[in-house]
Amino acid sequence: MDRTAFPPGFVWGTATASYQIEGATVADGRLPSIWDTFSRRPGAIADGSTGDIADDHYHRFREDVALMADLGLDAYRFSLAWPRIQPDGRGGVNRAGIDFYRRLVDALLEHGITPWATLYHWDLPQTLEDEGGWMQRDTASRFAEYTALAVEGLGDVVSHWITLNEPWCSAFLGYASGHHAPGRHEGSGSARAAHHLLLAHGWGLDEIRRHSPAATAGITLNLYSVRAASDSADDLDAARRIDGLSNRLFLDPVLRGGYPADVVADLGESAWFAENVSEQDLAAISAPIDFLGVNFYSRHTVAAGAPADHALTTDAAGFEAQQAAPSAYPGSEAVAFVGTDAPRTQMGWEIHPDALVDVLEMAADRAPGLPLYITENGSAYEDVVGPDGTVDDPERTAYLRLHVDACSEAIRRGLPLRGYFAWSLIDNFEWAWGYTRRFGIVHVDYDTMRRTPKQSGRWFARFLGGPLAQPAGSAAGHG
């Protein structure tokens, strides 16, 4: 199968995030984000690294865009660094930041690649976190102001916008478990951050409509198919809880205009939501979107009872389950994530391509006909550079093939899937894992910054009909 098996106009791309690839964290007026601060906290990052240099994409973006063209991509999903555009999280625009993204977008357009810009992929300006971060409603107002600046500066060349990437991660990994920046432990209060993030989406969407009426805009959620380990009432309730926190807490307000009462009750936040979530809030959050982005990696199988009672895999962040660590599922700590016999990636995430269809059906049931895009899908493995400079990664290649096949199955079932973005274009700073995990279809030597398309990247190029379809070894690297 190749791209001709998909409907005309189906979008094929790759995705990245600003803090993971750009580097240049003090260049041209950029100020610290919460990830700059968090990565310097002892023990926060697996290898003690930071994104200070990352892939040096800030200086090498033209090389990376040339790689995209060689792959045969239609589109590139990237994120804007908020502290590069509005360093303090308030006030006027930093023209140098806008200019960088204009250079990037111009390079994409010159190669016939459509830019898809994500406004927020987790790098909140540290000054706003010092004022309370996403636990404060005012941060949503600041996001709306930032969105206006970004769209005013780039709206003439960017026509596809994503407001937020994975607000579940921002709220619950950032403010509940503390596995991600800013590393706080607010327990069930982290659900308040979730509301403020979704409010930011709604208010940001309004600014996109105001400043670029013809633009296409949506939000990206990380969704999971959740299965109970057995048919027991307790295990079924465990599945209800995790489905609620992972999926319904975000899908329902965005697509149905209200929070699920059972999930808010599980969190113990019913009184706060009743007092602080207005009808106007819900109207903003549920304003019509042009598409829903879905990030898909794995499936959850869950059971009731303390984690020690079950054969644990890993939690949703990819960390080995630790009983002493605060849970990323506040109010549902007594739920265990259990293993099946499915193969796993290096992250410990089980491979269930059929669950990709499950989550698309979940979204389509709530908003029939709404265009859906897989905005991230990929896998980490321990890549090895061969003596000839090539990177043979058959497991990642198989993972991509399986999930592209699942996209085909979703379309066969009549689901409104319109595109697929592989995660990720290049190896990068993998958040709390630092540089110990590689998701790229292009290998990066972090000492030399040399880029080398992996076997998986060449497979993707063959699928798309891109110039890199030639056998590995004929063009081993870039840079």
Automatic annotation (TrEMBL):
Q: Which key words tag this protein in UniProt? A: Carbohydrate metabolism, Cellulose degradation, Glycosidase, Hydrolase, Polysaccharide degradation
- Pfam families, A to Z: Glyco_hydro_1 (PF00232)
Q: Does the keyword Hydrolase apply?
A: yes
EC number(s) per entry = 3.2.1.21
Reaction catalysis annotation? Hydrolysis of terminal, non-reducing beta-D-glucosyl residues with release of beta-D-glucose
Could you name the domain of life of the organism this protein comes from? Bacteria
EC category name: hydrolase
UniProt key word Signal: no
GO MF annotation list:
beta-galactosidase activity
Family indicated by similarity? Belongs to the glycosyl hydrolase 1 family.
Q: Which PANTHER family match?
A: GLYCOSYL HYDROLASE, LP05116P
Protein known as:
Beta-glucosidase
